[in-house]
Design a protein that fits this description.
2 copies of one chain form a homodimer. Chain A has 337 residues and is of the alpha/beta class. The first copy, chain A, has 2 domains: 152 residues, Isopropylmalate Dehydrogenase (3-Layer(aba) Sandwich), CATH 3.40.718.10; 160 residues, Isopropylmalate Dehydrogenase. Chain A has 13 helices and 11 strands. In chain A, β7, α7 and β8 form a beta-alpha-beta unit. In chain A, α1 packs across α12, α3 crosses α5 and α6 crosses α13. At the A-B interface, α8, α9, α10 and α11 of A face α8, α9, α10 and α11 of B.
Chain lengths: 337, 337
């Protein structure tokens, strides 16, 4: 298997991302094709005592799509960017999967224009895998690909999220919940009401509405469905709540001897919190619904995060997630609807 | 001043809520009119060695609107409920403010039908005051009164939130931010784009978009504006993130002697976290934009939370917030728009 890594569009420099790619290449026994500025990648490989060869190779590009560029225009104009070149390589099956920590909107736009959508899926969705207190993960879809959704888009998110949870995360019979502002059926806005009706009528393991305050502690479902605007607010707010607590704890621990002693005693507990609830480190988020394995890593990804994002891409490609998804959509479409 | 407390619709029994009302009545030197079942309130007062008199009195009712009832129907049908009777007392100026831990939707619907909207405000909004790491609060409006908003509703939320922040919280020149999924102007859904344009053109101290992950730690603004669905998801998710961390810490501290020792050393730090970030205890949320001081307390409110909600109602009524708001709307409406 060969996985493409876009090393140019992230917040950290190419050499840090190449490091993650090399680590993943060795650990997973896959080949990595680095998409980016040739000299930078080549230099990074040399520093890591690797060389441009068959295991690690370079797809040279002269342009970079930055984080703040308008996605659609950027993809159209920057034809020799690491992002566009990488997606072309995926389309042409030069690689089996694509990973980028770059501009999320540009990856989504490029994926739709270049790689194409799975038939029957008008809107691909980004699935984030979030850790919970129990240690078991939850899939949240969509977390930002579509900020204005029609009800049937969320129906597709539900199906794709459940397929992903089953085939990649290994959850046997994933249950589905709708992110809402109350558990009763009548709660929520117009979109939520219509999505609830669609999900309740569909042959899917839909269990009803779920809410932000109990998702991490009670883990009521395996897959949470929402529109991309809500999903993105949800993810960032969760991160905000967790970092607020960490912030107060950190300054408390550093304040005096008592704090420092307490901090020392609770070091294993604090690292458990970090391990269980670290959103930045946990892999990348796959873009589901396009004709290829595409994983979007956090913009702030370091080598460890990149390695973990490549792992997600590897698992998705290995189990032929997209083929299953395409079959699932058509099979399910005829299933009584 | 006389404040009405609805003691029937909350999750906790009337005697717990009466306790909060009595405490607030003594501390703030206000009279409390308890709306609810006469025998229950009377019994609770006796237990607290108080009596039905001028300071503490009872507005008897025979019906209760529960948490799960459809709001509009409940308000229409249950004419002798503690909630409806209480709002009628507010409308007739028998009391200066109204506090209820009951069905939020029913309080909002009842407030609009019975008490009425301030002229120029088509949609009242619920303003939540949330604590941040720095100790200074942020106002978030709307957190659930309106789940489907037009852009100009958010413009009114901005104005009402800023007035509340200035007159009740004492923030001299409150700044306003729009809750979004990125800080750049182009980010967000259709509603966010249109609201951004409206806010940028209005004579308001609008500083741009804000995001969930930095609100508590960086506190970039004093007032955060959003539609009620997003705002409610935001509040609950924040609570979820914080309780996930607390949950892991708690079991870590209780696991072994090392954890217990650490917990003992860090007790002041943990209580600082609780003090700084406890959403349930912090007061009630005023419903802004109606012709009367109405405060919605958390459904799970205990006596302490009720006392704090009455405090919010007291401060809002004392500074004649509604009169200022009505003037603000008309004054600002003519201000170049």
């Amino acid at each position: 298997m060969r996985i493409l890594l876009d090393v140019m569009g992230g917040d950290l420099p190419p050499h840090e991302l190449v490091k993650g790619g090399v680590a993943a290449g060795h650990r997973l026994d896959v080949d990595i094709l680095f998409s980016g500025e040739q000299a930078a990648v080549s230099h990074a490989l040399t520093r890591l005592r690797e060389r441009d060869g068959s295991k690690f190779s370079i797809l040279p590009s002269s342009q970079v799509i930055t984080m703040t560029e308008p996605p659609v225009q950027a993809v159209r104009k920057k034809r020799d960017s690491s992002l566009v070149n990488g997606l072309l390589a995926l389309k042409e099956h030069t690689v089996d999967a694509f990973v980028s920590p770059g501009n999320t909107g540009a990856v989504v736009a490029g994926a739709i224009f270049i790689v194409g959508r799975i038939e029957g899926i008008p809107r691909p969705g980004i699935a984030a895998t979030i850790p919970t207190v129990s240690g078991r993960e939850i899939v949240v879809i969509d977390v930002g690909a579509n900020v204005d959704c029609a009800p049937d888009h969320l129906l597709h998110f539900a199906l794709m999220g459940a397929t992903y949870a089953r085939d990649v995360l290994g959850i046997a019979q994933p249950t589905i919940g709708l992110l809402n502002i109350g558990t009763e059926r009548a709660k929520g806005n117009k979109l939520a009401h219509r999505v609830y009706d669609l999900l309740a009528d569909a042959p899917l393991p839909f269990i009803g509405n779920v809410e932000g305050h109990h998702l991490l502690t009670e883990r009521p479902v395996d897959v949470v469905v929402c529109d991309g605007f809500i999903g993105n607010v949800f993810l960032k707010t969760l991160e905000g709540g967790i970092s607020a607590v960490s912030n107060i704890l950190r300054s408390g621990v550093n304040r005096n001897w008592r704090g420092r002693l307490g901090g020392l005693m609770l070091r294993p507990v604090f690292s458990l919190v970090r391990k269980k609830l670290s959103y930045n480190q946990s892999g990348g988020a796959p873009l589901l619904g396009v004709n290829g394995s595409i994983v979007i890593a956090h913009g702030r990804s370091d080598a460890v995060a990149i390695e973990s994002a490549i792992d997600v891409a590897y698992r998705a490609a290995k189990c032929h997630l997209n083929e299953t998804m395409a079959k699932g959509i058509s099979g399910w479409g005829g299933n009584g609807r």
